[in-house]
Amino acid sequence: MGRAVNKLSLSEILHKELHVRPEENKPLGSLSTLGVGGWAECFVEPQDLKDCQRVFELRSRWGFPIWILGGGSNVVFADGSVAGVVLSTRRLDRSWWPPYEDVEKAGVIAELQSGCLLSLVVERAAREGLGGMEFALGIPGTIGGALAGNAGTGGRSIGDLLEEVTSIEEDGSLRRWLRGEFSYAYRRLSLADGVRFLASCKLHFLPVPYREIEHELKRFRELRSPQPRGVRSAGCTFKNPPGDSAGRILDECGCKGMRVGGAVVSSHHANFILNEGNASGSDVLELARRCRDKVYRAKSVLLLPEIKFLGFGEGVF
């Protein structure tokens, strides 16, 4: 059965099935760190996994696209109406940490839902003397987004801590994946391929002397110091090519200051595209394309996007 034969709107279909009320034509710009994009045909913010499962079950029946929105970093929404359902994980932010007195030399396993903010996880782990998450200092966004892109820096990533992932599959069923059933690499987790929602995970932390945690936090803070602050950005535009830095290559090719409409490449770090206040999603996409093409012509290096362009259609980048 397809959507074309159904007389109800997508929001009306979901409203009959969910515990939360969907919103029609929800503006998306304010929900992303870059601040661009149009509006969602249907926007839902589930409070539990059962509602998430139901959305995926309905998708398998009606065929509408689903866009997962976490903290809003690393995403660029298309202008105009974004067809389908934008599913926000903001309320899926529960976490379960063992009592401090139960921390042993073997470490602890914390369970985190996809909407948990990375900043709060870093803070909690450091406060309890648990090492491993220091690399995430200053990374905006949520656990779910960090999982999907295997977030990391300085040779460390969230995949190093990952013991288990609970996903919602294409048909709405829950599946548990144990370490060894998935793989991870630079900016990639195998489970993020295909139509699947990474709903929660279990991370393994080891007890570490606080002075060592402080040292690592300082190290990662310094690694991120060249990045622009206090501006509207989606984060790094491109992935680093093997053994090199996308920012360095873009800088060498003269990309700093390049502009399309209200989107401009940062003068501080060439791998960041900024919204000066009136950029559109199309501006950002076109500017990223021009930077990619300029690098390819000069270096024969094809830079791959780290940010995700949502609602533009397949093969836009």
Task: Give the secondary structure arrangement, pairings included.
Blueprint: H1 10-15, E1 23-27, E2 39-44, H2 49-62, E3 66-69, E4 75-77, E5 81-88, E6 95-96, E7 108-113, H3 118-127, E8 130-131, H4 143-148, E9 152-153, E10 156-157, E11 162-168, E12 174-178, E13 184-185, E14 188-189, E15 197-207, H5 210-223, E16 232-236, H6 246-252, E17 259-260, E18 263-265, E19 272-275, H7 281-299, E20 308-310
Parallel strand pairs: 2-5, 3-5, 4-20
Antiparallel strand pairs: 1-2, 6-7, 7-15, 8-15, 9-10, 11-12, 11-15, 13-14, 16-19, 17-18, 18-19
Structure explained in plain terms:
- This protein has helices spanning 10-15, 49-62, 118-127, 143-148, 210-223, 246-252, 281-299; strands at residues 23-27, 39-44, 66-69, 75-77, 81-88, 95-96, 108-113, 130-131, 152-153, 156-157, 162-168, 174-178, 184-185, 188-189, 197-207, 232-236, 259-260, 263-265, 272-275, 308-310.
- The chain has 317 residues and is of the alpha+beta class.
- It folds into 3 domains: 10-88, 2-Layer Sandwich (Uridine Diphospho-n-acetylenolpyruvylglucosamine Reductase, domain 2), CATH 3.30.43.10; 95-223, Uridine Diphospho-n-acetylenolpyruvylglucosamine Reductase, domain 3; 232-301, Alpha-Beta Complex (Uridine Diphospho-n-acetylenolpyruvylglucosamine Reductase, domain 1), CATH 3.90.78.
- Strands 6, 7, 8, 11, 12 and 15 form a 6-stranded antiparallel β-sheet that branches.
